[in-house]
Fold this sequence. Notes:
It contains six helices and five strands; from the N terminus they run H-H-E-E-E-E-E-H-H-H-H. The chain is mainly alpha-helical. The strands form two sheets. Strands 3-4-5 form a three-stranded antiparallel sheet, with no helix packed on it. A two-stranded antiparallel sheet has the order 1-2. The chain starts with 5 loop residues before the first helix and ends with a helix.
Amino acid sequence: xxxxxxxxxxxxxxxxxxxxxVHPARAQGAAERTADQVKxxxxxxxxxxxxxCHTPWKMGPKGPEPxxxxxxxxxxxxxxxxxxxxxxxxxxxxxxATMTAWAxxxxxxxxxxxxxxxxxGLGKWxxxxxxxxxxxxxxxxxxxxxxxxxxxxxxxxxxxxDLEAIFSYLQSLPxxxxxxxxxxxxxxxxxxx
Length: 193
């Protein structure tokens, strides 16, 4: 059996002691930066009306209110919507009592599940996917168009740091399994087929 020279043993102990001291501080700093980013994202989500559409509404003691037990989970998969009402005159849109389904000249749109569920929400998305969706107005930055009432033209003004914070906050939420239906085409487009 080969013996390790004393200098190497002392060097190994010194390196291990240094790593034990340096890495916890580095890890704590990263954790604090992440916590600050999540907190900033929560603030932006709370002040940018995300809950108004992406959190299903329910009837509360004082009238309609967001159902925070389903926060940001999108249109409930168990709520089947009838055909939208015919819109006449100055009316250009209608919404469901849940505030998660909207009808207008674009067809019917359903608000997305923004929780980190890997199958029905943003669980497989990256920050880049999220930022590209907001910047381009297209699902995952390249797919179908993001439909009204999503205020893409307004949200494009967020900085990348803002969008990264929002995404970090959304990823920190409990995952809610809720498969939102695909959008429906306009009634006129269906009748033309």
